[in-house]
Every structure is written in C-alpha cells, then in structure tokens.
C-alpha cells in the first residue's frame, strides 16, 4: 500500500467535489495493489501445497488460512465493485483484512506444532534432544547452563546445577587438581578432546565420561562449552573383555595367557622363584563315573583350595584341563605344598550328596637353575610331576 501511494488508487467521479452525486472509482494504484496481493497468495498456495505433499502437518493449517484469505479478498473485491453505486461501497475497504486469516493460522501452527523456524528454536531442540550431555561453565567451573542429559549423569535436577559449582555434585576426584587444571585450560583456551573422567554422582553411581570442550564468547564473556558422552557401559564391557582375556571362565584363576604375561614380568626382574605344576589325579575316572559336571566341580574345588592357601602376591593359574601352576618364593615352596596337600583331606561333596576324595601330583622347577624361560621351567616341572604321579600309583 505504501509503495502505491504515488499512484492514483481511488478517484472521485463527478462535476465538483461538493456535489452529492459522486462515486469512488478504482485507479491504477489499486489495480497494482490487487495484482501484488493475488500474486502473493498464489505463490503461498503453491509453496504450501508442496509442503503438504512432504507430510508437513502445519502446512494443512496454512493452506486453510491462505484459502480463506484468497476467498475473502476475492469476495470483498467483487462485492466492492458490485456495490460501488450503493451505500455499501465501503465493503471494498475490508479487502486487506483477509490477512488476519493467514496470520491466525500461522499463530495456530506455531502453538500446535511448535513450528518456529528460528535459530533459537533449533538451538533449543539440539540442546534438549542432544545425545551428548552439554554444560556451559565459567572460569570458576560454575554451571551456567546444563542439558537434561547432563542432569541425568550428575543425578540431580537441572535447577540445582545452575549457578552452582560442578564440583559440588561429583565425588571421587581431587577438587584442587580439577580447579587448577580448569583454570589453566580456561586461561590458555585449551580445548579438551576425548578426555576420560571417572566420578561418583549424587546417586552414588560410578560414572565414566568422555569430555570434549571448546570456548565461546557470549555477551562479552568467555565461557567453556563442554560436551560429555557417558562411556560407563562401554568401560565395563571393556574391563570384562580384558578380564576374560586373562582369566579362566570356569575357575576365575589366571588362564594361560594371563599366566604367561605374569611370568614374563617375573622373568624380567631376574629374581629367583619356584615353578610349581599341579595335576589332578584320576580326572578321567571322575568324568567317566560321575559325569563331566562332577569333573567341573572337582576343578573348581581345586581352584578354591589353591586360592585359600595362596595370597594375592603369589599368582595361581589354570593352564588347561586339570593342570594348575603356581609361582612361589623358594623359601615358602615346601610349606605351601604341605598346606595344599592337607587341603585334599577334605572330600568334595557332589550335588547328589556323594563324596569324592581328590588328590594331586606336584612337580617343582627352580628359576634360574632349572631353566631361564617358561618352556624350560614347565618341562622340568612336568617331568617331576609325572614322577610324583607314578610314586602315588605305586602306593
């Protein structure tokens, strides 16, 4: 309308302005205004139809609003032309009011579908729905903003986090070291990348997170933008996989790989130790008579009594089958073997209340006199163990 002010829009027709016999007639400016308005409506109808085909629910509302706008504009225009010679000529003045239908449907779509195409709304969606926990911290590690996921990790409501130090909600970390590191990173604007941090949250849960950060300038203030990923489950799985790689599933003792790793470390220290090999006697007979389940129970029973005799400083391993190995201080080997043999005096009780008396053959080799690597020590201990087994058979 403002653009068409210089162009004649409405004109009087009559001999004089004062005459009672006059009427308003449309001028070029009004025709131009109508042309622009109809073009605007047609373009919007086309764009809305395209959005409707894409499945946009809000576009259905827009289409209704534009259709009503179009019908209103056309009706008031035609009515104004038809009634221009009557007292109802003023109906044409209401042509622009059809925009109210369009405005109202936009308002409804924003209310019903949250259809606000703005950076603020996009930011809120990303912030609320982000698969990462998000924190905004100042130089003192005070929380200025926190995403819902971050509240879940910490174990408190978001309102409690805001304007409070993050250190007030985490345990198991050194507060002084944390603040010192935070200030250093902050002052030098050092970004964090895949930094791992483990803490205990307010629910008493141990949480391991992966932290990435950057710095943003907001209203003249430098803030740290922190992105957090919970890797607790992944770390538990990793720990379990690592444990299984070095431990026997049936007995929870070290397996061959775990034992080889341990003896390699011991050999590198060049300190004397005894390699003690233990083999369960009559294992085939137990399996044949009582079943393989009883055989597994027998192996678990031996593992249990070896753990009972040994301590954490002396590793025990199951090399496979019914074969076990111990690494001992040469000064304690004799006493430990006596204790192990005495443990076999207690019978193994099976599920059917049957009892089995177990026994074992033992062979010992000495490092470094009997060998300087695992294979040599095993070979000597194995020969002595079979010698012990033969002596047991003779008895």
TrEMBL record:
<keyword id="KW-1133">Transmembrane helix</keyword>
<dbReference type="Pfam" id="PF00990">
    <property type="entry name" value="GGDEF"/>
</dbReference>
<dbReference type="Pfam" id="PF00989">
    <property type="entry name" value="PAS"/>
</dbReference>
<feature type="domain" description="GGDEF">
    <location>
        <begin position="271"/>
        <end position="395"/>
    </location>
</feature>
<keyword id="KW-0472">Membrane</keyword>
<feature type="transmembrane region" description="Helical">
    <location>
        <begin position="88"/>
        <end position="108"/>
    </location>
</feature>
<feature type="domain" description="PAS">
    <location>
        <begin position="119"/>
        <end position="189"/>
    </location>
</feature>
<dbReference type="InterPro" id="IPR000160">
    <property type="entry name" value="GGDEF_dom"/>
</dbReference>
<protein>
    <submittedName>
        <fullName>Sensor domain-containing diguanylate cyclase</fullName>
    </submittedName>
</protein>
<keyword id="KW-0812">Transmembrane</keyword>
<dbReference type="InterPro" id="IPR052155">
    <property type="entry name" value="Biofilm_reg_signaling"/>
</dbReference>
<dbReference type="InterPro" id="IPR000014">
    <property type="entry name" value="PAS"/>
</dbReference>
<dbReference type="InterPro" id="IPR013767">
    <property type="entry name" value="PAS_fold"/>
</dbReference>
<feature type="transmembrane region" description="Helical">
    <location>
        <begin position="31"/>
        <end position="50"/>
    </location>
</feature>
<feature type="transmembrane region" description="Helical">
    <location>
        <begin position="62"/>
        <end position="82"/>
    </location>
</feature>
